[in-house]
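Dear colleague,

Thank you for sharing your sequence with our group. We've completed the structure prediction you requested, and as agreed, I am returning the results in plain text so they can be pasted directly into your records. Please verify that the sequence below matches your submission; if there's any discrepancy, let me know and we will rerun it promptly.
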Amino acid sequence: MIDLDALADQVRDAIPLTRHLYFRFEQFDGDQLRVSAPLAPNHNDKGTFFAGSQAALLALSGWGLTTLLAQQAGHPADVVAVETQLKYTLPLHSDMQITVTTEQRPRFEERLALRGKASLAIRAVGKDLQGQTVCEFTGIYLART
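Please find the predicted structure tokens below.
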């Protein structure tokens, strides 16, 4: 069983900035990861969710999914982002809910087992509490055992 709270603590210990985001890995179902973060510590001068916090949380979410998939496959790995793209679609006036997914899980697991390294393309969508999409993020992460 994968302990999401322990993974979050590992992130906070390794990356001091993340301590101020107050994120939470909410749920991992084996294929997708849900992450949440409150508006209060992440607001900007307009009272909306700071774009920089959104970017950090989305990148962290992609890292989290890649890390969890590697662990789940029995190949704990060092994970780094190698390419990202982010689009903001609406101002965010509430807490943020992120869902991160991939369509490459079988290929990722196979390559990680065979070669000890594999890349994974992910898609993360940030939504407000009413379910409206506020940002869209794509990324490629590299995992090395």
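Summary note from our side: Residues 4-144 form a domain with the Thiol Ester Dehydrase; Chain A fold (CATH 3.10.129.10).

Kind regards,
the structure core
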